[in-house]
Amino acid sequence: MRFVVAMLALAASCAAQAEIPVKVYAQELVDRTVAAHRDLMVVAMHVTPPKSAENVIVASNIGRIGKVADEDDLRVINTGKPNLEEAHGGTRYEVELVLRDAQGETIGALGLVWPYRAGQDKKAFDRRAEAIRDDLARHILNAANLMDPFPFEHSATTKTGAQKLVDAMQAAHRDILVLAIRAPATKGGELVVLGSTFGRHGKKADADDMKVLDAAEPITGVYSGGKRFGVDMALHDASGAKVGTMNVGYAVREGDDRKALVAKAVALRAEIEKQIATAAALAELDP
Asked: Do residue 192 and residue 140 come from a single domain?
């Protein structure tokens, strides 16, 4: 009887744990921003979640998640003009500006607050706000991406060899809009996202991803309302052994030379492959 009671208690405990909501990707980006800019007092993202009619705070370092956007927030989103304001008796400087995705589309508003002393250069704060916003954009696929669970799979990590490669490539090639590497997390395992510019670590490859693994030539497509040209290819290690897939996206406009974009993607793959010793190196933790 005691055993049965203990098992029921354990089951109840597990059920309770399962109900705890996971962090969304937007909150992960906010947390990274706060960690990178220690003088920031407030970081808040105002976004309209998928299938929602209202723009709300989806992530912040001060709580208030779900708070509906006010008139000032919506004016930033609808006009593109930032809100710039001294607040709290002139002791804080607030900047709210449009939040964008990797393609440059407006997807909401970003609020940033710094401590402020009379006479400080407000333009310097404005420039910092734009730089933070632009860096965030390079890690946002679209508005829906912000609402992805983080980590996407409970056991997934961002501390992999693949992520280290993705970060290095994104830093070295400013024209990359999106980049992801899929490979097995364990020997003989399924292909999953091991490194990306937009989260979703641990997400299993779907049928289209698996087609890429066996394709003889790069697979291309146009996404995000015609603004992003994507190239998907099989990925190899330095010895030429197939280890997974990669996809990269570049900005595209009507009339652009798409063959040149494919050639750029192929050159990027060659640069990455030179740095892959083995398939296991992509899944290596804390490389």
From this structure: no
Percent of the chain with pLDDT over 90: 89
User: pTM for the complete prediction?
Assistant: 0.88
Count of the separate structural domains present in the chain:
2
Range of the domain at 270: 153-283
Residue after which a domain boundary falls, among 146, 165, 190: 146
SS3 of residue 131 by DSSP: helix
Helices 122-137 and 25-36, packing angle to 10 deg: 140
Per-residue model confidence (pLDDT) at position 287 = 64
Judgement on whether residues 200 and 216 belong to the same structural domain of the protein:
yes
Name 217's Cβ contacts closer than 8 Å, sequence gap at least 6: none
How far is residue 102's CA from residue 84's CA, in Å, rounded to a whole number?
Answer: 24
Contacts (Cβ under 8 Å, ≥6 apart) of 126: 82, 84, 95
For the cut 60, the answer to whether the pLDDT of residue 105 exceeds it is yes
In the chain, % helix, strand, coil (3-state, to 5) comes to 35, 30, 35
Sign of CA dihedral 56, 60, 65, 67: negative
Q: What is the pLDDT of residues 15-53, one digit of tens each?
A: 333 334 469 999 999 999 999 999 999 999 999 999 999
CATH number at residue 53: 3.30.450.40
Q: Indicate if 201 and 162 belong to the same structural domain.
A: yes
